[in-house]
């Protein structure tokens, strides 16, 4: 049983080496000793954990300790605060902090600077999450120890405050009393540490190291650079206009191309599941087609005569070659062999004479078989009516090239099958999770009338079907409530299972719009864009989140947060998500195919934003593609999508486009034709 008066500490060792071999860690033990030996009996280390240099692992450990009831009072991490590429502890911890504690950071840095100028190479952060103080210490045992020592005496006070102790009681008696209780004293310098190991330094040399050196000065905590709202601050502190720059559609597409991870390469069986996959390597024929000399007609295999001699004459039918595997006796001069289309030529035969060029002369005694057949053809040449070995496909020839897609039409599968390819190298097709968000959203199929404020989930069934319709595997992630914790949990879980998450809703400017803050602040993701100048779909958001895959490698996963309005969601799916799915699976060109269509009527333009107008594109009797609107284009009116097979790309402008103008359209579905008969 732990004494309720003692403070609980957790130690998180961040080291990829130590996570594989715990015996490689010494900092964890050193910190434990500091708490025990120098903590004035106030501390009990209740948790120790070792994780690799992985954002999500660090975050999981910290939230595991700080987000429960009776959480630990302090979490100190050691490691990952330097400048090496794998050092990401501050980046992992910062988004978790509800309050920053720059004073502690300053105190630690000031103390270590007295020991070594290399203290500047540490990038500590400190702050409070819920009721827990979190401090990131350097990874070296010496550095970690000195940093902890420099602030240890002040920690109980900070922890009591963070845990909600009444601050008036806590501060009764003034600063002097606090200093005395904590066993620290003010000095002429700014710091109030009094660690035991370097009293010999005294404070006489002051902060000389501060003078004459140009030191980088930062006036804001890194946290302040996150653009999303901090949901903990509530509606009064939210941004009142979007802090995300407004990008053009082309700029957004460029960022998608740039930040969508490169496709993974896998080996796949040659069967129907290959349809839609793109080859990641050239495929060459391991066998020749045909594999043997085969007849291309029904007739008689013959030995072509020497030049000048006649091929006519009556010959005995010495053997029969059907298109079945097996041994065939050799054909001798003066003999012929009956042969069917596709059957192998008997050894010794050079050519085939069509049955039409022959006459049956005599039969066997039982009348059941041919005995002698007359060849009527003159001038039969070597190789006549024969498909030579490898004449369709040579052994070793490249039959399909890297980057080619296996279509449902069957041509590519047919080629692979003909040469006996059982496996090929392809780009792995991503798995896509689809999530709806919103407290008001209910299952589309929920029986009964809607209560006031309820909205049936239209986006999830639509996007799931679009994802599958484009040939990708989709996972239904359900509906998330508008609470940060719920959303974070669903997204974290989904990041383990899928390569791409598509959410809808929660990206507008309301206080319950949690997607951006959750991605940025809780998952440590990067939002590449959060606003696009287009109609519909302005708040479309594209982010990537670093995670570890099953093989332990760091990879980045993609999150698209689409607007909640059903039309915006499906339009932005086609415009932005599809190209990303194509990049991820090696499909090129990425995205919807573009055609030129002639307007069937005038179209009004928006002066500010490019519009993606739901349109029916139809091949006219004049041989030209025609575009006509599906009607009312409000982004909540999902009926405007029914029977639309294209998005007409309307530019910005003041004057309407005229009937007969030619405009680009993106094809989402089959083009109908006025030539079609019912
Ligand atoms: P939001 O961006 O969450 O504010 O959503 C914008 C609008 O879209 C609101 O009117 C939502 O009710 C609506 N909406 C959000 N998600 C869905 C959904 N899955 N199905 C239908 N409507 C939705
Ligand atoms: Mg919402």
Automatic annotation (TrEMBL):
Residues covered by the MoaB/Mog domain: 10-158, 433-583
Compositionally biased tracts (Basic residues)? 202-212
- Name the GO terms of the biological process aspect: Mo-molybdopterin cofactor biosynthetic process
Q: Which PROSITE patterns does the protein's record reference?
A: MOCF_BIOSYNTHESIS_2 (PS01079)
- PANTHER family noted in UniProt: GEPHYRIN, MOLYBDOPTERIN BIOSYNTHESIS PROTEIN
The protein's job, in short, is: Catalyzes two steps in the biosynthesis of the molybdenum cofactor. In the first step, molybdopterin is adenylated. Subsequently, molybdate is inserted into adenylated molybdopterin and AMP is released.
Protein's recorded name? Gephyrin
Source species, please? Lachnellula suecica
Lineage, opening ranks? Eukaryota, Fungi, Dikarya, Ascomycota, Pezizomycotina
